[in-house]
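Loading example: each entry is read as two labelled lines plus one structure line.
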Amino acid sequence: MITVEEFTKNLEAEFEEIKTGTLTPTMHYRQIPGWSSMYALIIIAFVDTHFEVQLNATDLKNAQTIQDLYTIVLSKQQA
Amino acid sequence: MALFNTHNVSIKGIAACVPKEKIRTADYPYFSEAEKDLFIKNVGIKERRVAPSNIATSDMCFFAAEKLIQKLQWNKDEISCLVFVSQSPDYFLPATSILLQHRLALNKNTMAFDVNLGCSGYIYGLQLLSTLVATGQIKKALLLVGDKSTLSTHIEDKSTYPLFGDAGSATAIEFDEKAHPIYFNLQSDGSGEDAIKILDGGARNSVRPDTFNIQEIEPGIKRSRRHLQLQGVDVFNFALREVAPNINQLLPFSHVEKEKIDFFVFHQANKLMNESVRKKLKIELEKTPYSIDEFGNTSSASIPLTMITRLKNQLENKKNTMLLSGFGVGYSWASCILTVNNPICCDLIEIE
């Protein structure tokens, strides 16, 4: 599994509208600039395509930061 | 496991009909400019067709069927089965298929019935009709599939209103001893009933005084209990979870190699979702046509609409092996592998 920094960088690349270096692991993911419900779908698609795990509505609700998302992906991958 | 194969059945032609009126995502007043760009880029919908109050699903299916029958030069008296698959029938009762039997001037010896399914409906309809036609007792049959989904969306609901377009289709199915087998995998999961739902108006929650009250569900989402509700994250996860395994079960059952399939036509739900499924299945983009950019999500009509608007030349000029896959409301999902041999693909019909 990649590091949380790489995870953040790769996730950032999914949002073409965002300048490089904007996202950090401690950032609350719902505060990504320009946040809309579409971003949740982009995150789900990103995680599914690259890590073959699914983030459901509860996972998204429980997670606050990008680090939290990474931790959930990690635990689901190991499950 | 609902895996089937049917023999001696072939698709002879397809037609589709849409309303003339185009609605552009760029003109949707409840999206900011950034939301419009994000929506067009990810969901993939630039415009869609919206039926005015005088056009029902059955009208679109009627015009599609008339043109198809005429192109095929079918004798109407030889058509002995008509199935209408839709979640926007003309009335609670009688069934719309029966009205269409009369309107199309089909023989009274026609068996006609409705099937209440949405995005999976084209495959379910094909399965039902091909099973009936395979008996050899029915030689010619019509599958009429479509929805006027815009009837049920509220303009102030950003989660539904910009997604759906209206369309109707007709597919001609015939007994044909030379036909290749058709393979199906049909599935259901009613635990997903709330993900795409209209709460009021059926026998469970009949229409009541507050049914039509518009409520704010969350910022950007206002609707009544008679409007369509859609839980985007749940539906997205459903498609990611179920569609690829369904196809991965069907492929070995059919003994058709994935590489031998010329086209994969998916229900046009959401480009981001469809692309995720496509990548999961490792299918080339060139084999996966999209019509969502021009028509939005047209429910059960999206597969035949994509076939005639994106693959007309390819389908009319050679034999093609295709995989079709529909998934959505229910949850209900299904796929099939079939070989189509130069079917007639009518030009798209527009009505107003």
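DSSP finds four helices and no strands in chain A.
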